[in-house]
TrEMBL record:
Catalytic activity annotation: spectinomycin + ATP = 9-O-adenylylspectinomycin + diphosphate
Name of the protein in question: Spectinomycin 9-adenylyltransferase
Gene3D superfamilies for this protein: Beta Polymerase, domain 2
Residue intervals of the Adenylyltransferase AadA C-terminal domain: 146-245
GO molecular function: adenylyltransferase activity; ATP binding
The organism of origin for this protein: Paenibacillus ihbetae
Domain of life, source organism: Bacteria
Length: 262
């Protein structure tokens, strides 16, 4: 899979469908940060438009994206939101979005011609804007530093906490996702670093107590596509999530823990 071709053709699709209303297309996530794994990673995009589109326009775009995804991405691995340029300039939390597409919504767009996702706020966008500002790539339109501005840390922290708030309840269902996300959230809170899941996990290997490092190491191996016979029981994952959320709470409150090795 030539990701340069994928991105070029994605931009062509958006320009064809949105025309002069398209202000910019921005890449974020693992592909922008140099740790993309085609078997595990999504292609994360943000579209910025000048003016709102009708639901029919967005639903037509969803159909075009589905065809594009089937052709170049084997039907999986694309996630994008579309936002108004004015909503970036006049930031409110949670940031509103006009349209959203992901693998989850792909099935709904296919099954129901009336399905539409958009028109409300998404806390995750505050984190996405931050990643774009610091680590993203402009694929089309205005340069990042002209379109975006730094997001107040308070909102970034709220977005990150929103992303891991169910970690204890959900980590056994999605161990790779929550293990590495918990690491990168703590990495940001303690050191102010905007990192990928892989980078956050590598940081965790160096900083976390020894008993939790095998869990992180296993997640990193799985993320890289390697086979790893190491088995983590459910209680171990829950214990890791509880520990990490405790450290995250301490970091948010400005405290520190002697459990972390430096």
């Amino acid at each position: 899979m030539d990701m340069t071709v994928v991105l070029e053709q994605a931009v062509e699709l958006f320009v064809h469908e949105l025309g002069d209303n398209l202000a910019g297309v921005y890449l974020h996530g693992s592909l922008a940060m140099g740790c993309f794994n085609p078997a595990k990673s999504d292609v994360d995009l943000l579209l910025v438009v000048h003016q709102t589109c009708s639901k029919e326009q967005w639903k037509r775009l969803a159909k075009r994206i589905i065809a594009f995804q089937d052709n170049l991405l084997s039907g999986r691995g694309l996630e994008l939101s579309a936002v108004l340029a004015s909503s970036i300039r006049d930031f409110v939390y949670p940031p509103p979005f006009e349209f959203h597409y992901s693998d989850f919504h792909r099935e709904k767009y296919i099954a129901d011609e009336n399905h539409f996702c958009g028109g409300f706020g998404d806390p995750d966008l505050a984190a996405h804007y931050t990643v774009i500002y610091h680590r993203g790539r402009t694929l089309y339109g205005m340069p990042i530093r002209e379109m975006f501005r730094p997001i107040d840390r308070t909102y970034v922290v709220q977005a990150l906490l929103h992303d891991v708030r169910e970690a204890v309840q959900e980590i056994n269902k999605s161990p790779l996702y929550y293990t590495l996300n918990l690491c990168r959230v703590l990495h940001y809170l303690q050191e102010g670093v905007v990192s990928s899941k892989q980078e956050g996990g590598k940081w965790g290997l160096d900083i976390l107590p020894p008993e939790y490092r095998p869990i992180v190491k296993h997640a990193l191996h799985e993320y890289a596509g390697a086979n790893d016979a190491f088995v983590i029981d459910n209680a171990g994952l829950v214990g890791f999530a509880e520990y990490m959320l405790g450290e995250i709470t301490l970091a948010v409150e400005g405290g520190s823990s002697t459990g972390l090795e430096r």
